[in-house]
Amino acid sequence: MTMRSNGTLILCYHRIAEGVEDPFYLCVSPSNFAAHLEELSRAREPSILADVSVPSRRPRVVVTLDDGYRDNLTNALPIAESKGVPITVFVTSGILGNHHGFWWDRLGTLLRSRPPHVQEIDLPVGDRNVRLPLGSSGIRADLDSIRRHLLPLRVTEIERALDAVSERWQVGSAPPPDAGTLTSEELRQLAASDTITIGAHTVDHVRLRDRPAREQQDTIAGSKAELERSIGRTVSHFAYPFGRRDDFDDRSVDAVRSAAFDTACTTIPGTARSGTDPYRLPRRLVMDWGRLRFQVQLQRWKLG
Ligand SMILES: [Zn+2]
Q: Pairing with 161, which of 35, 85, 224, 281 sits 20 to 30 Å away (CA)?
């Protein structure tokens, strides 16, 4: 065995669900998830983030799920328990209590119910209006171009922009019922399992990059405090919303460190090794792959 294979592979899932609208490729079906966990247990040592810097003879794998969808409790948990694979769920703390769903799910609903005569979307962005053409190359392309304009905004501004579109088009923007998020009670049920570690993912899932330091500290430390209050346990791990290199900055990393988190996950591809910055842990995004395709990916990631 070469030294190279002896890192910790950290996988990033979002939703475990099937037969639902999934324009952002966030869902892995329960049967594929079960197959993934079986393959992982054969190839690697299922592990937790707390052990990421501890040397190990067998290559490790850590399974994480981002955002805090209800299907993490209803679908992911029973599978993880039956396969004996620990999972970490990074929860956006603002979803607890009254929440009308993540803005990307609202955007998906809006575009699916777009009136046929509407060929463009007007987004109030700050004090200007951004007009984007719609429908020329499908809903995924529309979502991508709109998302690019919304990402740099505060979440309250994004919500306002979507409210305005909903009003102008005279269509609702409630996310589909299957895209529900965890309530406080469901979070406690999830956290009660030995299989589960709860991590934080900001209060509002803002894209952190270029936000003022104070705002970043508030949403990062705030999510830790809210989750700890809710589950009555220390929350030691964090994941940057969106998580790519250009989705957070040095202020985000400083804020995570000062909030006394032990680790922070990105979605920058790679394998964590001794010497990897614990506040910039790489992760691999997992898609709804069948068993064979997943095996191929595991091989590729080992070499990558
Ligand atoms: Zn997220």
A: 224
